[in-house]
Specification:
This protein is an all-alpha fold and about 375 residues long. About 65% of the residues lie in helices and about 5% in strands. Among the domains are: about 1-100, 3-Layer(aba) Sandwich (Glutaredoxin), CATH 3.40.30; about 315-375. It has helices at about 1-5, 30-35, 65-80, 85-95, 100-115, 120-135, 140-150, 155-170, 175-195, 200-215, 220-235, 245-260, 265-275, 280-295, 295-310, 315-330, 335-350, 355-370, and strands at about 45, 55-60.
Length: about 375
């Protein structure tokens, strides 16, 4: 998204918005992140300066057309003297989405009930409703609703977003009959979404990931690898225009290899990226992840140390220390690994976002497992 924002023509919005970019990894942003519940990146808010309430909210990457629609929606919510009942419900849903997705789902559903047949934001509300169902773990309703709405949508970015969200609702293994029923309906829609030029890179990555996970769950590694190879071929065909785009592509490569496949397939690209971005600690982190997966423990340790030297924020610092600890453990240096995990725990205390508690719990679990292991 940074790359899109850097190249987007948003001149007509000059003077309408005060633009603010906040990192989820900086302690001074904790108050904002806690207040507005930003738990995923990227997350976009339009905030009413009069009452500091959310006028519009969208998580995940957007196309330029979606971004402009999002800004227009936020602007109209702030400036309008009154809203239609459907628009008001949509705004309430956005305000609740980050922290109370189950309640947001009710508001989006209400918006759809109240809307006129020709309401221009109907498909946006439908996509938002499906997202809220996923975020609140109402997986069956999420999948069923995604199938129902997507089949009737225009084949644009909202169709792709809805299908991608619905696919995540059938990825977790569930023995209930509904899962396989909805999966068989969603799979062709997912393949259709991949055929559309309008699809955003992040949404394509998401669909490829779910297709790979589903094949792994079926114990068909060959099919998962075919999807993975197709995905990697797409990524390799893109010439990044900026460091941000290069980083996004590398994240997708790592996500691909973490599902199934040979990490050595992507190590040359990750090494090239670290050289191309010498001040980027995330480039070192991604490289360390895959070197660890490839059992190149000495190289993983060195990559972690390079990343830590680049002054990462609290979350990345904790993550790099965890990876280095795992590599040391694999080399039989358990005492040093425990010391690094203690440092990771200290770093994690300063994570400003909602990820702090999850990260602390994970590191404590790692420490406990090492304490109980035979010496």
């Amino acid at each position: 998204m940074r790359d899109l924002l850097a190249h987007a023509d948003l001149a007509r919005y000059a003077g309408q918005f005060v633009w603010l970019e906040l990192s989820y990894d900086e302690p001074e942003n904790r108050e904002f992140l806690s207040k507005y519940g930003a738990t995923a990146t990227p997350t976009f808010f339009v905030i009413n300066p009069q009452d500091e309430l959310v006028a519009a909210m969208q998580s995940g990457a957007m196309s330029l057309a979606e971004l402009k629609q999002f800004l227009d929606r936020g602007s109209s919510a702030v400036l309008a003297q009154s809203q239609t009942p459907a628009d008001a419900a949509l705004t309430r849903g956005d305000a609740l989405m980050a922290q109370q997705p189950a309640e947001a789902a009710k508001e989006y559903q209400q918006a759809l009930r109240l809307a006129s047949v020709d309401w221009p934001r109907r498909e946006l509300a439908e996509a938002s409703f499906v997202q809220a169902l996923q975020d609140s773990r109402q997986r069956q309703q999420c999948a069923e609703t995604a199938v129902d709405y997507a089949g009737k949508m225009k084949r644009d970015v909202l169709f792709v977003r809805t299908v991608a969200t619905g696919m995540w609702c059938v990825v977790p293994p569930d023995p209930a009959p509904w899962r396989n029923t909805q999966l068989e309906k969603l799979r062709p829609l997912a393949e259709e979404a991949l055929s559309l030029r309008v699809s955003v890179r992040d949404h394509r990555d998401s669909i490829y990931r779910t297709l790979m996970y589903l094949e792994v769950a079926r114990k068909d590694e060959a099919a998962a690898l075919r999807w993975g190879d197709r995905w990697l071929a797409e990524l390799d065909a893109i010439k990044p225009r900026s460091d941000d785009e290069r980083s996004a592509l590398d994240i997708a490569r790592v996500e691909n290899a973490q599902i199934v496949g040979d990490p050595n397939r992507i190590l040359p690209t990750l090494r090239a990226s670290e050289k191309a971005m010498p001040n980027n600690h995330n480039a070192s982190l991604r490289l360390a992840q895959m070197e660890l997966a490839a059992k190149e423990y000495d190289e993983a340790i060195l990559a972690c140390q390079r990343g830590l030297a680049r002054r990462p924020g609290a979350m990345s610092q904790a993550w790099l220390l965890e990876i280095e600890a795992e590599a040391l453990e694999a080399k039989g240096r358990a005492g040093e690994a425990r010391e690094l995990l203690q440092k990771a725990l200290t770093a994690a205390e300063h994570i400003p976002s909602a990820s702090r508690e999850h990260t602390l719990a994970m590191i404590n679990k790692m420490l406990q497992s090492k304490s109980s292991a035979p010496q």
